UniProtKB/TrEMBL annotation:
It comes from Sphaerodactylus townsendi. It comes from the Eukaryota. This is Uncharacterized protein.
Amino acid sequence: MFHVMKHGHYISRFGSKLGLKCIGMHENGIIFNNNPALWKEIRPFFTKALSGPGLVRMIAICVDSTRDHLDRLEDVTTELGYIDALNLMRCIMLDTSNRLFLGIPLDENAIVLKIQNYFDAWQALLLKPDIFFKISWLYKKYEKSVIRSCKFLPIRRPFKKDLKEAIEILIEQKRQKLSTVEKLEDHMDFASQLIFAQSRGELTGENVNQCVLEMLIAAPDTLSVTLFFMLALIAEHPQVEEAMVKEIQAVTGDRDVQSEDMPKLKVVENFIHESMRYQPVVDLVMRRALRDDVIDGYPVKKGTNIILNIGRMHKLEFFPKPNEFTLENFEKNVPHRYFQPFGFGPRGCVGKFIAMVMMKAILVSLLRRCSVQTLKGKGLHHIPKNNDLSLHPNEQQPLIEMAFVPRRKVAKNQEAK
Ligand code: HEM
């Protein structure tokens, strides 16, 4: 596993060319750009935006966005006092990503829905055989984006002209904005860098649009579900919640979390690692061999598609209690070679550092204000899940709602007992 992740001749992924073309990912963007030369031109734009000053700015953005969304919680709370916690996390992820990478006002709920439809389409088309695209009346209709619903594909609405068009409109607004601002250096974010690269002839407009789209969907597709699972685990393990709240109080006191607090939040960090190990969102890594190789004596032919089961690796004897959720699994020195929730190497997750910072900032901001309860007190294993491109809750089922109880109320209830 380490060999494949580490070496430069495994820097491609795989998937149906026609399927990827259909959703705009074929040789565009980064996530499923399987042309190594084109991918190499794109990756530095992402690396730059997701590290250095951007990463530090993201902490304050996460604090503000979490506060704004918690302030408006009443608007999304049902009569019984519950909220769709996953959707709330998706809205926070989209908002934080937009604030850092694009900076154009958008309709959060509408775009979140379009992202879900895009993700459904991506999952449905990624591994379809070519025959599907050649003979299927379904696909032809679908390509023209005229179908409203389809019983074979889990697509709720036509997606092609949906998310992509919405992003194109936002990028056009960004271009307009850039052409009128006085101090350009104050607006040099990820989207601006790409727009200027296009004007220098280094990128096509289509590629710029796809890169922005992928940057805006990356966190809502992964981090929101990860945080949702974490909230369910917190509700189920009050002693872990208590340990984290105690640490947060000791490190931040009465102020918001800041960049220099990040390395001090050890319990929170162990909790994040253990949650990602125990209940991963991404448990598979996909790579293609770009040349012949031999791994541990086994020949690997050029063009071989490889799926690395990181989820399985995280449940092996490298951890003291691999099948239990317990912070003990990360209390002693963990063999980090065997814990790779973000993949690893040149094609590893480019967002892994910012993702850690975002999870810490959002969890700390949330736990300072609220305690979380699941519907009917049901634990994580009661929440039905789907496992396709990623592991995520089945949203057709109940049990994904949660109650966010303000901390002052929790303290009062405890006093009364
Ligand atoms: C808990 C959150 C996240 C998890 C578990 C996760 C996990 C992963 C994994 C396993 C990969 C494939 C790595 C490989 O092939 O070795 C990946 C790729 C990627 N991730 Fe993440 N990720 C997360 C958050 C993010 C965030 C917040 C961003 C950006 C805002 C991001 C952007 C990307 C991109 C662009 C790629 C493709 C990189 C490439 O192909 O060069 N991820 N992620």
